[in-house]
Amino acid sequence: MIENLDDLDENQKETLKKFREQVQSSLKDDQDDYFLLKWLQATDFDAEKADDMFRQSLWVRKKLDLDSVLTPSYKPPEVLMKYDPGGFYGYDKEGSPIFVDPLGQIDFKGLLHSVKKDDVLRFKGYHAEKGLQLAKEKAKETGKRVHQVVNILDMEGLGLKHLWGPGVALFNSVATLYENNFPGYWKRIFVIKAPLIFPAAYNLVKPFLSEDTKNKIKILGGEILLSH
Predict the structure, then answer these.
(1) Which of 6, 33, 86, 220 is deepest in the core (most CB within 10 A)?
(2) pLDDT for res 128
(3) What Pfam family does this protein match (any one) (predicted)?
């Protein structure tokens, strides 16, 4: 993972220039070359694939209205606020926001009986946008480059009910939302309190994760090992 634009070789710099020219008209003022670099790294520096991925993301953002989730007009469904209680709790020593997700406590069947799938995806998009906002604020405060989020997945309570087909499909849709619309978002993913059923659950999600994301997953405590 390249962290500094100065580390790009000449071919990569040329690819970045080409990609910037392709998407220039769709970029926001704060979407700089570091932003573009994430899309290129997600597509092995293929400018055409990065362009396609970026434009697909624009469609998803419009469909879920992600550009408004940080404004007062967005009111998440009450059931999501109550029963999907993940949130941000401080920063790591380098200033990256920390998101704690009590995944093992979430009742996916109950959620899907109460809200639409797109409501869940928009809520997760809100979390993603909030993380980027916190990272930008910390970068401005410290003068350092802060652009990723640390995720702590609390698996206490994970059981067979979480292997329910529609629930797994929903979680995979959330994983795809992050992979395809927020490339390079996660700095590290720490899994805590993982029960013995966790590897089985992980194997259902693994096909939807990039190699970069899978390599960032670390299980803390216990003797569970993952095969990437």
Answers:
(1) 86
(2) 98
(3) CRAL_TRIO
Query: What per-residue confidence (pLDDT) applies to 50?
Result: 98
Distance between CA atoms of 97 and 150, rounded to whole angstroms?
Answer: 6
How many Å apart are CA 218 and CA 206, to the nearest integer?
14
Q: Residue 26 to residues 23, 31, 114, 187: CA-CA distances in angstroms?
A: 5, 10, 35, 26
Structure tokens given for 149? 């989020």
13 CB contacts (<8 Å, ≥6 apart)? none
Long-range residue pairs from 45-54, CB within 8 A, at least 24 positions apart, any chain: 45/11, 45/12, 45/15, 46/15, 47/15, 47/18, 47/19, 47/22, 50/19, 51/19, 51/22, 51/23, 53/180, 53/183, 54/23, 54/26
d(CA 215, CA 52): 25
Helix (H) or strand (E) holding 221: none
The Cα 84–Cα 81 span in angstroms is 6
Tokens representing residue 16 in the block: 């970045």
For the chain, list residues with pLDDT below 50. none
pLDDT, residue 3, reads 83
